[in-house]
């Protein structure tokens, strides 16, 4: 019985295989119930003691891709964000694009003068009377969490910037806030400090109802790295040209020619990007 199978997590810890967790992740991809069950049945048939979560994910992704490339792309969202590395700059642009979609005016990679020193800030976002300074912490290893040292450091930088902002004309009524955005997770004490100090945190699954994962799903702003029809080398070339979203690729199809993708594959790539990002 699968409920008696012990699996090995990314951290090296062991736990019992819980079928409902796999089902939930597959259902979030939007796949039909029949397809989800077929994938689960396939995994149950090959489960063995000590099997890694990485191997379970790889096999589930492969089986889902055989049924639907688009649902497989949504299923691999977390891994796709990891593939925005290694420099971290595409992740900063990605966060900026999400906030653009939410109505913010954003700047990515700017130098800001604080009261005491200058700061290189990943994203500045403004909407109405809200003015945010956002630092992005990208990890290519999902086992790396942001501990309390990160928000402590970012909050001190933000306070220096805010002291300068508050003296500027027109800022008297603005709400200033520092953010930390990461593609992995925050430790408990990092969250505790942020909640106490007024710093806003955004991670893969935090805050619960407005996490990075839920914001992407709501907006349909999937990273181009989620596309299963592009090779790793092609994704890297597009990222180097500043394209981070499926939506951007769909809006500039000539980019496929620029990076020398054979024309015979263009339609399949663009069709997938359209379906994945709900472009009409």
Notes on the structure:
- The chain is of the alpha/beta class and 280 residues long.
- It has three domains: 2-75, no CATH class; 89-219, 3-Layer(aba) Sandwich (Trna Endonuclease, Chain: A, domain 1); 222-276, Orthogonal Bundle (DNA polymerase, domain 1).
- Helices cover 48% and strands 16% of the residues.
- The protein has 13 helices and seven strands.
- It has helices at residues 19-27, 33-46, 53-67, 69-75, 77-82, 89-101, 149-165, 188-197, 212-219, 232-240, 246-251, 254-258, 263-276; strands at residues 6-8, 14-16, 105-113, 118-127, 130-137, 175-182, 200-202.
- The strands form two sheets. It has a five-stranded mixed β-sheet with strand order 3-4-5-6-7. The chain has a two-stranded antiparallel sheet with strand order 1-2.
- α2 (33-46) packs across α3.
- The radius of gyration is 21 Å and the shape is globular.
- The termini are far apart.
- The model has no long low-confidence stretch (mean pLDDT 91).
């Amino acid at each position: 019985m699968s409920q008696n199978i012990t699996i090995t997590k990314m951290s090296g810890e062991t736990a019992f295989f819980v079928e409902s967790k796999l089902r939930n992740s597959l259902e979030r991809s939007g796949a039909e119930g029949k397809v989800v069950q077929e994938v689960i049945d396939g995994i149950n048939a090959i489960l063995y003691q000590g099997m890694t979560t990485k191997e379970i994910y790889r096999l589930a992704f492969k089986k889902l891709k055989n049924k639907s490339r688009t649902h497989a792309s949504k299923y691999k969202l977390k891994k796709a964000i990891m593939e925005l590395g290694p420099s971290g700059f595409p992740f900063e642009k990605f966060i900026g694009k999400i906030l653009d979609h939410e109505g913010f005016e954003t700047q990515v990679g700017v130098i800001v003068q604080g009261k005491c020193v200058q700061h290189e800030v990943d994203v500045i976002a403004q909407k109405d009377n809200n003015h945010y300074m956002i630092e992005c912490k990208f990890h290519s290893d999902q086992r790396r969490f942001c501990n309390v040292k990160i928000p402590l450091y970012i909050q001190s930088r933000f306070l220096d910037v805010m002291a300068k902002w508050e003296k500027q004309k027109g800022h008297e009524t603005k709400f200033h806030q520092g953010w930390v955005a990461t593609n992995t997770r925050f430790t408990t004490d990092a969250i505790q400090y942020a909640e106490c100090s007024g710093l806003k945190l955004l991670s893969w699954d935090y805050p619960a109802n407005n996490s990075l994962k839920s914001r992407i799903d709501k907006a349909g702003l999937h990273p181009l790295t989620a596309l299963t029809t592009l090779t790793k080398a092609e994704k890297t070339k597009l990222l180097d040209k500043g394209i981070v979203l499926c939506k951007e690729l769909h809006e500039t199809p000539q980019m496929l020619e620029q990076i020398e993708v054979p024309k015979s594959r263009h339609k399949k790539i663009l069709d997938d990007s359209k379906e994945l990002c709900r472009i009409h």
